[in-house]
Amino acid sequence: MMNRLKIKEQLLEHDTISYAMDHIELPKGGIDCSEGCNPYGFPPECAEVLKNFDPARMGPYPHSDALYDAIAEFWKDQINVERDNILLTDGSINALYIINNIFDTHHAVVLGISPQFTDYYMHAEMTGLGYAPYQLKRENNYKFDGYEFLAMHYVADKFAEVSVPQREYNFIYIDNPNNPTGQCIDIEEIENIIKAARKHDITVIIDEAYGDFMPMENSAVRLFAEYPNLAVVRTLSKGYGLAGMRIGYIIAHKNLIACMKKMTNPYMVGELAREVGAEALRHREFIESCKADFAEMKNEIREVLTPSIYKKFTNEKGVEVVKKKRGPASGRLHMSETLDTNSLLLLYHDNPGINLKEEFYKRGVLVIDGYDFKGLDSSAARIRLPIKEEFPVLLDAITEINKLD
Ligand SMILES: Cc1ncc(COP(=O)(O)O)c(C=O)c1O
Prior knowledge:
The chain is 32% helix and 19% strand. By secondary structure, it is an alpha/beta fold. The chain folds into 2 domains: 2-41 and 285-403, Aspartate Aminotransferase, domain 1 (Alpha-Beta Complex), CATH 3.90.1150.10; 45-283, Aspartate Aminotransferase, domain 2 (3-Layer(aba) Sandwich), CATH 3.40.640.10. It is globular and about 70 Å long. Pyridoxal-5'-phosphate binds next to helix 4.
């Protein structure tokens, strides 16, 4: 019936393509650990910009250079970024949608990682692209292995786990840090992938939505001038806490940016958002303090799940020293490979029948169900750390769920 309208078949197959919610329904008196925004909000100086904004600027189309200049300034210690290397986008999700639309979809396949940001690959499938993920393995604590990725998936062209005959990879999509695990792939590994991809004329998309939580030196932005087959996606939604302003951007070679510009609305990111975003990027100290808190919280979670063992011994000088090492799992809940300074983490339980989202909900914590990610099920859950004051609610829930059979 519907398809008399000749709507793409794949759009009719799914009810939704995202775990994003219209409304957040918190457990009564509970806390939100579901949305990927920054629980600490944004640099306070942004509120001043808002107060001083001249409403007359709402009238014309947005032409402010403020955000372009702030982006160039932000990266200047790492690499020189010119204006024609930047495309401003309404949030980074929009950047990804634009990217998916510049490639020829005929028999094309995106090589990804599983699990990773659901909205990306679902959109790729909606545009008609195939999606072939490299599966992170539970037995390896979901740690990404760049060597295996390269060997299995396109250098040797051996498809150990997915079979996509007669198709070629048009591009590779990697979220770094990864959503949901929060892990960070070293820039050397990323560069090896980009280098190998270039030999096969494959474009690599590095989505650094959570990139502000890793060291700047680990950003693929540093590589864009050397690799015309690279596009790096960034956002101010996560680290800089401006998800409500919808500010994202792409950094790439100017030829790639020029192609993307032909597939987009010419007026992305409103005038006010450009000013607020520019101010945010001047306050890296804000992110540093968030990172320190997240690292402390992850450490406390680790202490619950794999308590430290202290070993006393006498060294060669006859002095008694105490050595600390990670002990075995104290229960049945585990934290995947993750970057401690990142707000995201993935927990998984040994009991395949458990529904972790429900268990957290009962204990006052809203999380994202692992089932919402390809390659995971409901015995896993993605958690975005809360502010420190709310952390005891999460830690108590983790402590209890760890003891469940
Ligand atoms: C890996 C990743 N990329 C991109 C996005 C999109 O974020 P935004 O559109 O707010 O920039 C998200 C949001 O959840 C994400 O997790």
